[in-house]
Design goal:
mainly alpha, CHAD domain, 2 domains, 11 helices, globular
């Protein structure tokens, strides 16, 4: 093998072509069966995952890991909502995506925490900077451990097998493929059913909001964010299946759910940061503990700020979802 044929060190572990996919993602419109839309979405997201894999491995830009994780979570959501349309292997594949998602999530949580802490401590006095740096360094070390676990996962046969399985689900069936005939029958699920199907994740989100007390526990607001994210991902898949006017309404819903996700994400990040600060108190010197206390106070104020506005953001989601009338 010559130097020219050796794989580049920044190349992904596999390619869309190696998974049996075309040069470009397939497309689907309002006239296509629902199963086609599911496969197209998987096709798009597996390409995004592969695109950001090299950057995730190198660790140069944390955004690569973030985008790889987003692609993975979108695929999990698609398979949860509509995986039955692409065959019985969808649920096992969703489980494998969860396995990789845990490793990606561990590193991403550290990236968010470390980036935020670095911003916060820049406001502190010069005399507190050495202790602040020691505090941040502690989490950088812990991130290194999590990153090594992720690197091993991405180099494993299990990861390669997972990619192959997703590729099989994403491939569009041929006319001779009897295994997918049921999903493309004229009386099977249609593109319109994907739009009508938005009612289900909206109902779940609305029910979760209604069940909350005036001052909800932190974990309940985190669960609410997950419900909102599922609605957003369902809307993203339904949009290409919708006609023009309906697609505009769905776009409004996507924006509203994204805003809700951002607001509740800030709440979760504040809660996690405050808990992390409490957790280090017994393992650091008094100067670092002082810094951790100051940061925890700031995070609790951020948490309170989000709690004052999140219901207003939810109201926009609810209104946008109700404007999409099922066919």
């Amino acid at each position: 093998m010559t130097a020219e044929t050796l794989p580049h060190k920044n190349a992904p572990s596999t390619t869309p072509a190696a998974l049996g996919l075309g040069d470009r993602p397939a497309k689907a419109g309002p006239g296509d069966p629902a199963a086609t839309h599911v496969r197209v979405k998987l096709d798009i997201e597996i390409r995004a995952l592969l695109e950001h894999e090299p950057g995730t491995k190198s660790g140069v830009d944390p955004e690569d890991l973030h985008q790889m994780r987003v692609a993975l979570r979108r695929m999990r959501s698609v398979l949860k909502l509509s995986g039955r349309l692409v065959g019985p292997d969808a649920e096992p594949v969703r489980g494998e995506l969860g396995w990789l998602g845990q490793s990606l999530g561990d590193v991403r949580d550290y990236d968010v925490l470390i980036g935020h802490l670095r911003e916060v401590v820049t406001e502190f006095e010069v005399r507190d900077q050495p202790a602040a740096r020691r505090l941040v360094s502690k989490f950088v070390t812990e991130r290194g451990v999590a990153k090594r676990r992720l690197t091993r996962a991405l180099a494993s046969p299990r990861y390669t097998s997972m990619l192959q399985d997703i590729g099989r689900l994403a491939r569009q069936p041929t006319a001779l493929d009897d295994s997918t005939v049921d999903s493309s029958k004229s009386d099977g699920p249609t593109a319109a059913d994907l739009v009508a199907g938005l009612a289900k994740p909206h109902r779940k989100l609305a029910k979760a909001v209604k069940a909350l007390p005036a001052d909800p526990p932190d974990d309940d607001l985190h669960a609410l964010r997950i419900h909102g994210k599922k609605l957003r991902y369902a809307a993203e898949m339904a949009k290409p299946a919708a006609k023009k006017k309906e697609a505009a309404r769905i776009q409004r819903l996507i924006k509203a759910t994204k805003d809700l996700q951002t607001v509740l994400g800030d709440h979760q990040d504040a809660c996690v940061a405050a808990d992390r600060m409490r957790g280090v108190l017994d393992s650091v010197d008094t100067d670092v503990a002082f810094i951790a206390g100051r940061i925890a106070e700031k995070e609790l104020l951020r948490r309170a700020g989000v709690r004052a506005v999140w219901r207003q953001v939810w109201a926009e989601v609810d209104e946008a979802a109700r404007a999409i009338s099922p066919r």
